[in-house]
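Quick question about two entries, pasted in order.
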Amino acid sequence: MKIGHTIALAYVAHGNIYRALDEYSKILKYDPNDVYANYYTALLYEGLDSYKQAEKYYKAAIAQDSADGKIYYNYGMFLSKNSSYKKALEMLDKALEHSPYDAEILYDTGNLYIDRYYGLNYNEEKEIYDNLIFIICS
């Protein structure tokens, strides 16, 4: 992990969100394609209810096609909270491609299918919940 990430995470741990954002800004000035700097910046802006900024950084993080399912998951949940359900499901499905046995991703994806498309995607819902049950019972 780069020193800048460590410093930014230390600021977050001490509740100094704006200093953490400054640190991530420095990282991104040097390397605008840093997946985790973009991702953590998105999370911080989302926490500050700065949704346009959060979306900008989520998009930058996923543009790198990260193998980290949590990035797609958190972006999907962000989109869901902002009523972009179709795009949210696309991101959650992408999260499952990278993390097919993550119980949190399975649970929230299944719930979003039920909440938004009850009865229309029964096979997808069933597969998701079958995987979730398998994980829980294993």
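Here is the second entry:
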Amino acid sequence: MRLRPTLFSLAVLILGLAATAMAQDEGIPKLTGTWEATGYHMHDQKNGFNHANEKATMVIAEQQDRVFHGDVRWSGKFTGKDTFSGVIDKNNADFYLAGHSDGLRLGRLEGPDKLVFYFLAPGGTNPRAGYVEYRRVK
């Protein structure tokens, strides 16, 4: 007869662990989708300060758990594209992007549909730093 209470205790333990795991997964923000720049400011060695008439769109194509990938395109005075891989910090607010061809981006979620990232490209032919604010396109 001791088997029945043991099985019940085991079932409660398994359900508790499953609920905890599900709650942790729900805390990871979903970043997939299209994001458009709403604010921008940069400085680079060749051109100095730049903050006007730039357009940027970031598409996060796929996300698995905390890891994601996508591309960012910009146009205006300069035109370009970079693909990236990224990861969301365990605090579920900060994230980090490694450009596949250019730079490092350190970001922060400022709400479910708002983020900012800071761009750093040291050395090379045109070192630069700046930030871009984005809103999710719905």
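Reply: The chain has a mean pLDDT of 84. DSSP finds one helix and nine strands in the chain. Hope that helps.
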